[in-house]
Amino acid sequence: MRETLFCLRYLFVLGWRLDRRRLIVGAGLLVLAALATPVVAVSLGRLVDGVTAGEPNAAVRWAVLAAVALGAELTLDNFAHIYYFELSELTDEQLNRDLIRLVNGTSRLDRRDTPAFADQIDLLRQDVMQMRMTVQSGLQLGAIAAQVLFTAVLLATLSPVLLLLPLVGLVPVFLGRRAEQVLQATREEQSPTTRSIRHLRLLTTNPASHKEIQIAGSAAYFVAQQDRLLGAYGSAMRRAQRRHTSLVVVGQLIFAVIYVGSVLWVYAMARRGEASVGDVVLVVSLATQVGAQMAGGLDLLGVIHRSAAGLRRFLALERETAAAAGPAPDGPPPAAIGDGIRLESIGFTYPGARTETLRDIDLHLPAGRSVALVGENGAGKSTLIALLLGLYAPTRGRLLIDGVDLAGVAPEEWRTRVAALFQDFAKVELSLQHSVGIGHLPEVESREAVRVAVDRAGASVLADQLGDPDALLGNGYGDGQDLSGGQWQRIGFARTLMRTRPMLLALDEPASALDALAEQRLVDAYQAMAKEVAISVGGVTLFVTHRLSTVRLADSVVVLHGGRIVEQGTHDALITLDGQYAELYASQARAYAD
């Protein structure tokens, strides 16, 4: 019960802060509608007494009151719905904003790159949807509590023994709460399974996957995998549901016994002349209402209890985020780079991993130079770029920007001085203006800045085809222009080029989705950008590529293998060395020649 009260208090305080008028009016209308229900029972009882006593005037008055109370019960609830529905919308919007803030609340990606965090966020997305319903459920539960209290007073006026009815009505409430705990625990245990099921559904319904699924004939395989997961999930939930049902049935049976006993008790009172026929009608009506109140309250408590567990997870994430953020460094980055970027004995291990991804990295990236990172998949190239961009902190060693230790620089400040395009770049389905413009927020609305970035990225033909900078890209949520992989990559590169004076320009497989002609255009744009970066702020350009023909454009080449630097130097020097780089270059040359 403590968890339930905590959840209600939190959400009502939030509702008060968001819109106290809707909260007060919605709650008031619900309580008035709830109190009208027992009034109907009282009116019917007195109506029967008026008829049996031969008092038509009294009977008419009670009949009118019953009609008015019944009308109030039906209409006030509908008016209340308008207010608490709007309040639920506001609560949902606020909680989603808070969730976005918490997911992005730390300056590093360390916590976000773990399966446990993915499971936690997956549950929280469902919890936020549930908490939206809890606002109205809490208001309805408060109205039911007022209704039960009024009913108890009415029953006590007839006989204190009848107070057993609402008191025993608490038994199914407590057993129902225990039943909900069983279901909630099972849902949490099955979170990895539900996440896998959703992933398979997304994979098999995503248009981007259809071609491969059709060619491979793998639809039946994915359906079988989903059926297996659904079977495991269903089996676990059925076991939990059986325990849930057993607890609920026991509680309802106990209440049913007391319900029948209460009716028999007032019937015996009537036979002894201690109660009227109207009193019997009143008790039967109120007892029926108590049953409905307890059943409704039980359902509402289930909703609130599930939300309470979700709210605890939400607040736990808030605490974890605050703890992970800790005292953030607040030093400024250097205004320009004279010496370059140095990595001294850098090592890095991903959270939860047992082995280092990068080890003993000693590297100097001279100011104003372009450097290519080369190596097989898994060599650590993308991880090294992420460290340089400040997305991760080194597990050991130092990363110096012109002599300034990056560990003492505010991550947000450093990121304003870098620009990057990743291999798994984001397909931002907004207007062309905003999809590109968010690369540099101070100029997100500048038509000129966006057009310059688009032209430099070689996406001017696409922009001309769209015609309007406000044209929607993608059709994920609107009737926009669907783009090819290469077109999306050019949009991503234009977004990168919105920052015209970065100290570090990092490109991770920038031409992976482009054809040969488009790749050459991107290389030309890359060379022009690298020169500007070098001249303006002495910036370093770093790029990862498997196309070694592009590597020749770099001033120097760094070869990674197994998380270590095994070779570095100019293209010609490494060819002369006849080591791993020379072997990679020769194998690609033979492939092109063949």
Provide a compact summary of the structure.
This protein is an alpha/beta fold and 594 residues long.
Describe this structure in words.
The protein is of the alpha/beta class and 594 residues long. 66% of the residues lie in helices and 10% in strands. It is built from 19 helices and 10 strands. It has a 6-stranded mixed β-sheet, with helices on both faces. Strands 2-1-4-5 form a 4-stranded antiparallel β-sheet, covered by helices on one side. α1 packs antiparallel against α9. The protein is elongated, with a radius of gyration of 34 Å. The chain starts with a helix and ends with a helix. The mean pLDDT is 84.
Total helix count? Answer: 19
Order of helices and strands: HHHHHHHHHEEEHEEHEHHHHEHEHEEHH
How many E-type strands? Answer: 10
Strand content: 5-15%
Mean pLDDT: 84
The rounded Rg comes to 34 Å
Which strand order do you get reading across the main beta sheet? 6-7-8-3-9-10
Structural class: alpha/beta
The amount of helix comes to 55-70%
What is the first-to-last residue Cα distance? 74 Å
Largest sheet: 6 strands, mixed
- The backbone outline, from C-alpha atoms, is elongated
Poorly predicted regions: none
